[in-house]
Amino acid sequence: PLFQAWSYFRRRKFRECADVCSQLLERPPGEQVAGAGPYFTFYFILIQAAWNLKTRALTEMVYVDEIDMDQEGIAEMILDENAIAQVARPGTSLKLPGTSQGGGPSPAVRPVTQSGRPITGFVRPSTQSGRPSTMEQAIRTPRTALTARPLTSASGGYVRLGTASMLTNPDGPFINLSRLNLTKYAQKPKLAKALFEYIFHHENDVKNALDLAALATEHAQFKDWWWKVQIGKCYYRLGLYREAEEQFKSALKQQDMVDTFLYLAKVYLRLDQPVTALNLFKQGLDRFPGEVTLICGIARIYEEMNNISSAAEYYKYVLKQDNTHVEAIACIGSNHFYSDQPEIALRFYRRLLQMGVYNCQLFNNLGLCCFYAQQYDMTLSSFERALFLAENEEETADVWYNLGHVAVGIGDLNLAYQCFKLTLVNNNDYAEAYNNLAVLEMQKGHTEQARALLQTASSLAPHMYEPHFNVAILSEKVGDLQRSYTAAQKSEEAFPGHVDTQQLLKQLKEHFAML
């Protein structure tokens, strides 16, 4: 039975593996032991092996790679006391929006998130919700998060405390942590490692996991780098970033590991020190030349710092090492699309299709690239496929919104109006659709409807400059110059380089000076 359980584990059939191990553990010793001596020792080893295997199987059922879990909750963003400098220099902070040094496309061409950074070509946990400046923005549901409540650190990847046992063991928890003698287990390295991962990932009891790791590293005379990394992970989860940094640095002195570099870079990014994280990744590349995860980490940081050209270079370097890296292909494709090169972007998205990626987002992007590359025969069929593959209303809303743009491009404003309406049917918080509907209403001469739609758009997305600018233009036309000036100032704050806003402000100031 133990060999069968091990076979299930290797084939990732963790539920069957845990069931077989449970049957082994439930057998009373009297059934197995015919006499004293070596056979009893063998049975004890067998029970230990079954316990270890079941622990690992239950852990794997809820395991989440800590390296990819870098989403920040409301409490971490609003109540963050780890800021090194409240007014950081441009290009040294991820919290300062609009500090572009890379010559990337402006917000007039490439949309930005509420944190002021351009929308990426690949959805990652860190891009799910922008860094809000007020509590109201933090509580408002981010459109890309696809959830009815704001992101918190406990949502999504992490299992809530004590709930995994109910999911994997209907009869109750497999291990009663309150009765464990952690000192005894810490002296058995092989059992201790499996037990630590069970407590950390399955039970999400970080405090007990930290106690076990501290005792185990003490037993190993502080020479085992693995335990130092685990202590660092516990400190990181508890929000003790400086202590985590010390543990990861100590582990790197003993053993160079790619994962340790990634964990340490996560700490620096959470402390808002992207330049230190970049230097760390480059040190890692000196020790592990061509390591894709390290190169990709550098590209992500440059992208978040709005340095698009450097990000594109590193993503190309990723593709030289691994030409099937989905994130790199998608990000380079989106960069070419927003740089007015839809034909080249189309080649990258077709490459993803050849690799077997088959989802709504890909066909949505293919449809846009085909339209702007003037390959009209493929445009509508791609959007039809995207609508068919859409898994939720937010994805459907994105497709209808892009179809509205296609309709505007071919001059069919009635179709565009219907598409934007369908966007709002699927997602009532779609600020871009409200803005574009308002523009269509303005062209029809419906001033009041346009004003109402623009007010809705600007309240839903205060980081967008378009609704503010359109309110300014509309108010100026009807003679409400004070409202026009206020809206133009908000537009300039959202996009300082917008020429039309600057010209409008100049005209209004001259008019006020004459008065």
TrEMBL record:
Pfam family, one: TPR_16
UniProt xrefs under InterPro entries: BBS8 (IPR028796), TPR-like_helical_dom_sf (IPR011990), TPR_rpt (IPR019734)
Sequence segments annotated as region (Disordered): 96-138
GO cellular component, one term: ciliary basal body
Keyword hit for Ubl conjugation: no
TPR repeats: 431-464
Taxonomic superkingdom: Eukaryota
UniProt-listed GO biological process terms: non-motile cilium assembly
Alphabetic keyword roster: TPR repeat
SMART domains: TPR
Extent of Polar residues compositional bias: 125-136
The name this protein goes by in its record: TTC8 protein
Organism per entry: Edolisoma coerulescens
Gene it is expressed from: Ttc8
